[in-house]
Amino acid sequence: MKMECLNKNYSTTKLCYKLLDGSFLDMDGKIKAELKFKINNPKFKIQNSKLIGKPEDKFETMLFLPEGEERKGEGGLRTKGYFKHSYKKVVSDKRQEIGDKSDEWWIVDRDDNLVKKVEMPENLNLPSTTYHLPLISIITVVYNGEKYLEETIKSVINQTYHNVEYIIIDGGSTDGTLGIIKKYENYIDYWVSEPDEGIYDAMNKGILTARGKWIAFLNSDDKFINCYLLNNLFIYLFSDVDILYGNILKNGKIKKAYHNFLYFYMSIKHPATFINAKLARKIKFDKSYKIAGDYKLFLECKIKKCKFKKVNCVFTIMREGGVSSNSLDSIKEVWNVQSKMLKKYRIVFFINKILFIFRKVKFVFKGGKSANI
């Protein structure tokens, strides 16, 4: 059990912890099927391949998803015994007393408690000013996304930040998507391909398997603005923040995000949003919605007075299109969310009712084109 840098050129292969010894692996170097759900490690709070959580967590964190019907495949670094953690650099009191200023890196749990001391790979060349390396989990949900998926994957694995976990949840694609995923299998932490109940069911599966302190969803046709984004963001701890968000670039234009407008429309975009994992594990996407599940989640966070923080720069390049912005169904679903959640806010409710009517009329007069919601 040791820390390894499998490839210093990619964000997902710089800090890989080999949690399991050779007895767990088959001839192909993958975890044996009969042992996959029997991983136990009290130090890391792993019991039967699940992370022991807190009572308020809505669902458990799993190392692997139970096999669903018609599964087409599963893979990634995790299936080879490599797992990701968050890290903290400390100087113990005893070392300070004897004048030894050398640093120790520790794996830390979700609450930042020290778990195990580790030796960082020498070829990482971490700056001496780096004292925290929180694990960032990026989740891509995809179905038949062969056209742009490779660009999305590259924008994640080419990040300069050292501690990234990448998870891909494929809905059982029938095009070339699975081939692209397998091409990058050694740079993806965990992927699975099987039918699901829609985008929000798939996103919940991603949360189920994410081990990071922060969770972000990057659509299969979107990409981060540049390779420095995560490094520039997470040099800060953001310890008192629930949701960190920024702007998007769409059709060559910057679209500003403002969380204070969530009462009226989807004023932030989930591909340009990072959710504190503690919050993500307490809530989940409502899979009864086909389009507005992310809006419902963010509106719920706003109503519950979660702490939002905007970083006024572009996080993500989004492509034009998608059912979320171009259908009458999206207008109806947004109103459905608002009518259920905002009734006690009478003035807001009344304004939204007027806006709902206006958006429907605008949609019709524009010949079925986007109503900009």
Task: Label the structural class.
Answer: alpha+beta
- Total separate domains: 2
CATH class of the largest domain: Alpha Beta
Low-confidence residue ranges: 96-100
Distance between the termini: 50 Å
How many distinct helices?
Answer: 9
Instruction: Please give the share of residues in helix.
Output: 10-25%
InterPro entries: Glyco_trans_2-like (IPR001173), Nucleotide-diphossugar_trans (IPR029044)
Keywords: Transferase
Protein name: Glycosyltransferase
GO molecular function: hexosyltransferase activity
SSE diagram, text form:
Blueprint: E1 2-4, E2 16-18, E3 46-47, E4 50-51, E5 61-62, E6 73-75, E7 82-83, E8 86-90, H1 93-97, E9 104-108, E10 114-118, E11 132-133, E12 136-142, H2 149-157, E13 164-170, H3 177-183, E14 190-193, H4 199-209, E15 214-217, E16 223-224, H5 229-233, E17 243-250, E18 253-255, E19 273-276, H6 277-280, H7 293-303, E20 308-318, H8 328-341, H9 346-365
Parallel strand pairs: 12-13, 12-15, 13-14, 17-20
Antiparallel strand pairs: 1-2, 2-7, 3-4, 4-5, 6-14, 8-9, 8-11, 9-10, 15-19, 16-20, 17-18, 17-19
Helix pairs in contact: 7-8, 8-9
Protein described:
The protein is α+β, with helices and mostly antiparallel strands and 373 residues long. Helix 7 (293-303) packs parallel to helix 8 and helix 8 (328-341) packs antiparallel against helix 9. It folds into 2 domains: 2-24 and 62-85 and 128-318, Alpha-Beta Complex (Spore Coat Polysaccharide Biosynthesis Protein SpsA, Chain A); 328-365. Strands 6, 12, 13, 14, 15, 16, 17, 18, 19 and 20 form a 10-stranded mixed β-sheet that branches. The relative contact order is 0.11. The chain has helices at residues 93-97, 149-157, 177-183, 199-209, 229-233, 277-280, 293-303, 328-341, 346-365, and strands spanning 2-4, 16-18, 46-47, 50-51, 61-62, 73-75, 82-83, 86-90, 104-108, 114-118, 132-133, 136-142, 164-170, 190-193, 214-217, 223-224, 243-250, 253-255, 273-276, 308-318. The chain is globular, with a radius of gyration of 21 Å. A hairpin with a 2-residue loop joins strand 3 and strand 4 (50-51). The N and C termini lie far apart (50 Å). GO terms for molecular function: hexosyltransferase activity. InterPro entries: Glyco_trans_2-like, Nucleotide-diphossugar_trans.
